[in-house]
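Figure 3 (text version): C-alpha cells given as input.
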C-alpha cells in the first residue's frame, strides 16, 4: 500500500508585493487540489509586514532603536524616536485605512496633522503649489481626497521601512529583502554567512510566523516559491526555521528565481535547507515528487529536480515526461490568503503606474510562455518563455468566473510575458457574451494586430490598461533586438489603445549593445513625442542586462560585444558582464532618462528640448519634432 498523500503547504516568502499576493501559490494550490492533494497556502510576506507594522511591532523596534548609539541613528530613526508615541498611536488606524477598512480616516490624514512625517515627506517638495497652498493640489484636484490620503499614508509607511532598515535589519526593503545576497551571486557564501548569523528582529518575527503556519497546517511538505532575488533570503530563513524544529518536513524550493538563476546549481549547502529544488513549471515535478514520497517512484525517476545524493554531491534528476497541459492545470485558488489585509499603496501619482501597487488584483495567465519568443534580450530558450501553450476562451472565462465567485473581487491582472492578440480577442468576445463585468490589464507586444477595432473590443470587455515593451525607441535597435515592431507601428498601436480609453505603459531600455549617445537622445525624443501625442501615459527605463540564457548572451559576437568570464561558483548564474566597444557611459545617461520620464508621467517638460534632462552636453536629436504626429496621420 502506498503511503498517504502528504499535506502540502505552499508559502510566499518575503518580500514580493504588499497590495496583492504573488500568484504562484494560488496556481500550485489550485492545481494540487484538482488532483486530490490536500494543499494549503500562506503569504508570509504580507504576514511579516503586518506583524512588524503594528503597535506591538513598532514598540519593539523602538526599544532596539533607542539602544543604538546616537551617531548610529539614521535620520529616519531619529525622526521616528522623536515622534514615537504618534507612530504607535497611528499605525493601527493607518494600516486599516490602507486596507480599505476605514475610509473616513482620509479626512484626518489629508490635514497633515495626524500622521507623523519623516524624511520621506520631503518628496512632496518636488510638486509645485497650484496657488491653493497645497503642493499636491494640482495632482489630486480631480482624483480626490482618498487618493491624496493614500499617497500620504504610503510615504508614512516608506518612512517606517527606512526605520526598520536603520534600526533592526540593514537589508530590509518592502519588495527587495536582502536582494544582494542572491541576485546573480555565483557563490552561496554570502547567503550562507548571513544565515549563520544571529537572527535580526525581522528574522525572529519571520521565524515566529513560520512556526505558527506549520502549527496551523501540519504539513508534510512545504513548497517555497521564490520569484525574485529579493525573496530568496526570506525563503532560506523559513526553511531554516522549519528544519530546526521539524526536520521530518520535506522542504522544496522553486519559482522564477530558481528557473533562471539556479539551472546549474552545484553547491550542496543549499540542501541543508531544502530537500529538493525543482525547475520550470512546477506541476509535473511536484506530481513526480509526491509519488516518490509515497514510495511509488524511485528518486532517479524525479522530473527536473536537484537533490543531494548519497555521496553528498548535487545531482540533477530528470526523467523526461510531458508537462501538464496549460488547459488542464486547473483554476488558481486564493483560499487561505488574507485578501482583505493587503495594502493599497500609492507611490506615484500617475494613474497607470499606480496599478502595480494600488488595488488587489486577481492574477491570471492567458497563455503559458510567449508566442513571439524571438527578442534577443529575453530568455527565449527557457520554459517560461519558450514553451507556448494556450487554453480556449471558454476555459479562461470559466476560470475567471470561479475566481470572482471565490474572492468577490472583479479586478484581474493578466501576467503573461505577452498575451496573444488572438487569444485576447476570443476572450473579450466570450466575456461580453457572458456579461462578465470584470476590469483587467496585462502585457502585450505592440504589434499591428492590435487595430483600433480590436482595442475598442478589449475596452468593451473590461480592459483598462496595457503595458508593452518599446525598449529602445530606435528602428535600428528594434531590428537588432528582433522585436518585430517599428517606432511608427508602436505609435499607432498605443494611440489606438489610448483612443479606446485604455491606459498604456511602455517598458523602455537603455544600454543595449551598440547603442550610442545619439541613439539614446533620439530614443528619448521619440518617448517625449509619444507622451505628447497621447500614445502612452506611463513608462519606465531600465538598464539592459545581458543574461546567459538570452540570444545576446549566447551569441555575443552577433551584437558586437565580448562577454566577461563568469566568476567560479556553484550557485546563481544569470547576468553576465560584457564589453561594448562603443564605450558609452550608460549609467550617466540613465539618470537623465529616468528624470525625464518621471516628469513626463506628471505632464511636465513635454515641450522642452530633451537635452535639458542631462547634466552634461549631449548631441541634438536627429528626430523631427513631428515624427510621431506624422506616423499617426499615416495608416502605415
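Below: residues designed for each position.
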Amino acid at each position: 500500500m502506498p503511503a498517504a498523500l502528504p499535506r502540502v503547504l505552499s508559502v510566499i516568502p518575503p518580500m514580493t508585493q504588499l497590495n496583492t499576493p504573488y500568484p504562484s501559490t494560488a496556481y500550485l494550490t489550485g492545481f494540487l487540489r484538482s488532483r486530490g492533494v490536500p494543499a494549503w497556502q500562506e503569504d508570509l510576506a504580507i504576514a511579516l509586514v503586518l506583524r512588524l507594522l503594528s503597535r506591538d511591532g513598532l514598540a519593539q523596534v523602538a526599544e532596539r532603536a533607542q539602544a543604538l548609539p546616537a551617531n548610529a541613528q539614521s535620520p529616519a530613526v531619529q525622526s521616528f524616536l522623536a515622534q514615537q508615541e504618534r507612530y504607535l498611536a497611528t499605525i493601527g488606524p493607518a494600516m486599516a485605512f490602507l486596507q480599505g477598512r476605514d475610509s473616513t480616516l482620509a479626512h484626518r490624514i489629508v490635514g497633515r496633522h495626524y500622521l507623523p512625517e519623516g524624511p520621506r515627506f520631503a518628496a512632496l517638495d518636488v510638486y509645485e503649489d497650484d496657488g491653493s497652498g497645497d503642493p499636491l493640489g494640482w495632482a489630486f484636484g480631480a482624483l480626490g481626497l482618498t487618493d491624496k490620503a493614500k499617497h500620504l499614508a504610503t510615504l508614512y509607511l516608506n518612512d517606517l521601512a527606512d526605520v526598520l532598515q536603520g534600526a533592526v535589519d540593514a537589508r530590509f526593503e518592502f519588495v527587495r529583502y536582502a536582494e544582494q545576497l542572491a541576485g546573480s551571486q555565483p557563490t552561496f557564501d554570502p547567503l550562507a554567512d548571513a544565515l549563520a548569523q544571529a537572527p535580526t528582529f525581522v528574522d525572529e518575527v519571520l521565524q515566529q510566523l513560520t512556526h505558527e503556519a506549520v502549527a496551523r497546517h501540519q504539513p508534510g511538505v512545504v513548497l517555497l516559491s521564490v520569484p525574485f532575488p529579493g525573496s530568496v533570503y526570506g525563503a532560506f530563513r523559513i526553511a531554516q526555521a522549519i528544519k530546526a524544529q521539524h526536520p521530518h518536513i520535506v522542504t522544496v524550493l522553486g519559482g522564477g528565481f530558481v528557473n533562471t538563476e539556479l539551472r546549474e546549481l552545484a553547491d550542496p549547502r543549499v540542501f541543508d535547507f531544502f530537500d529538493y529544488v525543482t525547475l520550470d513549471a512546477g506541476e509535473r515535478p511536484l506530481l513526480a515528487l509526491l509519488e516518490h514520497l509515497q514510495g511509488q517512484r524511485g528518486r532517479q525517476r524525479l522530473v527536473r529536480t536537484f537533490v543531494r545524493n548519497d555521496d553528498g554531491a548535487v545531482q540533477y534528476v530528470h526523467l523526461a515526461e510531458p508537462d501538464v497541459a496549460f488547459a488542464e492545470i486547473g483554476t488558481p485558488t486564493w483560499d487561505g490568503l488574507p485578501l482583505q489585509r493587503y495594502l493599497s499603496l500609492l507611490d506615484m501619482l500617475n494613474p497607470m503606474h499606480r496599478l502595480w501597487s494600488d488595488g488587489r488584483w486577481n492574477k491570471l495567465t492567458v497563455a503559458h510562455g510567449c508566442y513571439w519568443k524571438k527578442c534577443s534580450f529575453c530568455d527565449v530558450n527557457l520554459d517560461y518563455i519558450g514553451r507556448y501553450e494556450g487554453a480556449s476562451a471558454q476555459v479562461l472565462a470559466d476560470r475567471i468566473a470561479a475566481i470572482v465567485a471565490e474572492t468577490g473581487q472583479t479586478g484581474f491582472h493578466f501576467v503573461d510575458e505577452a498575451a496573444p492578440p488572438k487569444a485576447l480577442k476570443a476572450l473579450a468576445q466570450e466575456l461580453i457574451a457572458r456579461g462578465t463585468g470584470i476590469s483587467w490589464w496585462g502585457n502585450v507586444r505592440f504589434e499591428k494586430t492590435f487595430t483600433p477595432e480590436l482595442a475598442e473590443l478589449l475596452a468593451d470587455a473590461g480592459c483598462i490598461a496595457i503595458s508593452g515593451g518599446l525598449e529602445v525607441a530606435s528602428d535600428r535597435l528594434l531590428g537588432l533586438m528582433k522585436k518585430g515592431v517599428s517606432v511608427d507601428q508602436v505609435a499607432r498601436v498605443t494611440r489606438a489603445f489610448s483612443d479606446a480609453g485604455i491606459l498604456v505603459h511602455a517598458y523602455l531600455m537603455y544600454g543595449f549593445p551598440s547603442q550610442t549617445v545619439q541613439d539614446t537622445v533620439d530614443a528619448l525624443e521619440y518617448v517625449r513625442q509619444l507622451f505628447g501625442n497621447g500614445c502612452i501615459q506611463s513608462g519606465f527605463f531600465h538598464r539592459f542586462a545581458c543574461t546567459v540564457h538570452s540570444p545576446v548572451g549566447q551569441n555575443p559576437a552577433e551584437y558586437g560585444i565580448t562577454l566577461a568570464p563568469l566568476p567560479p561558483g556553484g550557485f546563481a548564474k544569470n547576468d553576465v558582464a560584457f564589453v561594448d566597444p562603443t564605450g558609452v557611459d550608460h549609467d550617466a545617461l540613465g539618470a537623465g532618462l529616468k528624470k525625464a520620464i518621471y516628469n513626463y508621467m506628471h505632464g511636465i517638460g513635454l515641450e522642452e528640448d530633451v537635452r535639458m534632462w542631462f547634466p552634461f552636453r549631449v548631441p541634438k536629436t536627429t528626430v523631427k519634432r513631428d515624427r510621431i504626429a506624422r506616423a499617426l496621420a499615416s495608416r502605415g
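The mean pLDDT is 93.
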